[in-house]
Amino acid sequence: MLTISRTLALPESELVERFLRADGPGGQHVNRTESAVELRFDVAGSPSLPEEVRTRLLARRDRRLTAEGVLVIQGRRFRDQGRNRDDVRERLVELIRGVLLAPKKRVATKPTRASKERRLVGKQQRGRIKQTRSRKPDFE
């Protein structure tokens, strides 16, 4: 079980891990070991996720989300397969935790009278500065 919060956990059967050969440092050893990890999680078809969490996850315009609703996270940060595996799982947990709570609705407000006046005074000052630049000299 991958624990997300007190009330939400994902069973191991919903996570698909694939191990790949990673690029980067490691010398000849990197050509023989599969230390990179690709974690796939079917967001759209997961029975463990509450419906509102699923819709918020799918609504995110994340490049790691496929058209079928599968989240693909790759980990090749470390040279060790175990550390990459833990890293990918932790990134999945953080991603899901980020959408657990619904974002607060923005309350539309109007600018105050004082802020409108400050804006207009600033525009007038700026206009005067620009006017002085374009004036012809008087001595001609």
From TrEMBL:
Residue stretches of biased makeup (Basic residues): 125-134
Prokaryotic-type class I peptide chain release factors domain ranges (all copies): 21-37
Superkingdom in the source lineage: Bacteria
Keyword Hydrolase listed: yes
Organism for this UniProt entry: Rhodanobacter denitrificans
Protein name: Aminoacyl-tRNA hydrolase
InterPro entries, per database record: Pep_chain_release_fac_I
Organism phylogeny: Bacteria, Pseudomonadati, Pseudomonadota, Gammaproteobacteria, Lysobacterales
Alphabetical keyword list: Hydrolase
